Structure to design on (307 residues):
């Protein structure tokens, strides 16, 4: 199983120095992938609760966010082998034609190192700010993904749908990776999981206990088979939001929280249920806005690569 690490593009830690040092240290230590996250606003009164905290509040580090693709492009020029991923870009905020060009450019400039994590988004305030319709996210995604693939794999390109229309046109810039960079979806509800099974290359869960992930991943593979796909081609890349402390927590702890040994147990459990990769994200943990802490964790957690 591969082990990746987040790139510090959120919070005050998000600086050119931090991006460079974390990216280069991760590559030197043999990590598989670097991942960025997307956030646009820090609303004073959220319309929808944030799913990553018990009380639904939005962590303050989201008040400052570097663009996820620009951050990856920046470190692409300073690394040579480590793969570069988004976890995740929210489809309703983007035009797929424009996004396809940005993603293709990154894949070309990095010599084929891009992984594309996409999601529907949960933040209605950001949807309102970008002109997206919160109630039509799923229907939009049903066109968004096929259009991305069409742009990446056909020439000339033509697409006609309810949300997007592309007249028959040449788009000669194509990704280095064939047929296209891998697409992972952050999906949790049945309709989104079914879409993943039909259209994506992998699943990118976060915050879920191991037994829940195992059951959902099994269901995804069944749905892929029902859709006429080879279920073995669907992979799971787990986003591990870290909370490491000095002593072990009780059995009711959240996944990837507790002592280093408990984190290691969670990684082994993910490998056992068939995860292709786990990537660590220390941004929300105590000390998560300290560059020294990130660099220290890169050294500490490298042992997980032997799991």
């Amino acid at each position: 199983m591969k082990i990746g690490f987040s790139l510090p593009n959120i919070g005050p830690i998000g600086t050119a120095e931090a991006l460079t040092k974390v990216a280069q240290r991760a590559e030197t230590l043999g990590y598989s992938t670097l991942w960025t996250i997307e956030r646009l606003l820090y609303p004073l009164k959220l319309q929808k609760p944030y799913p990553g905290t018990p009380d639904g509040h939005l962590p303050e580090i989201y008040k400052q966010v570097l663009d996820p693709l620009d951050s990856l492009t920046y470190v692409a020029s300073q690394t040579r082998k480590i793969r570069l991923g988004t976890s995740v870009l929210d489809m309703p905020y983007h035009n797929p034609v424009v996004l396809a060009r940005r993603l293709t450019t990154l894949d070309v400039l990095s010599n084929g190192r891009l992984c594309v994590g996409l999601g529907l988004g949960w933040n209605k305030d950001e949807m309102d700010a970008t002109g997206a319709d919160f109630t039509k996210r799923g229907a939009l995604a049903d066109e968004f993904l096929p259009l991305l693939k069409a742009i990446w794999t056909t020439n000339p390109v033509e697409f006609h749908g309810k949300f997007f229309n592309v007249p028959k046109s040449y788009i000669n810039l194509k990704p280095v990776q064939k047929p296209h960079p891998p697409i992972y979806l952050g999906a949790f509800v049945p309709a989104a999981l079914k879409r993943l099974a039909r259209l994506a290359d992998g699943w990118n869960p976060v915050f879920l206990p191991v037994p829940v992930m195992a059951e959902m991943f099994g269901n995804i593979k069944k749905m892929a088979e029902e859709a006429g796909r080879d279920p073995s081609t669907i992979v799971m890349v787990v986003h591990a939001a870290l909370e490491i402390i000095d002593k072990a927590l009780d059995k009711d702890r959240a996944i990837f929280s507790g002592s280093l040994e408990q984190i290691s147990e969670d990684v082994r459990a993910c490998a056992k249920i068939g995860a292709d990769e786990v990537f660590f994200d220390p941004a929300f943990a105590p000390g998560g806005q300290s560059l020294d802490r990130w660099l220290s964790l890169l050294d500490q957690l490298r042992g997980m690569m032997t799991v």
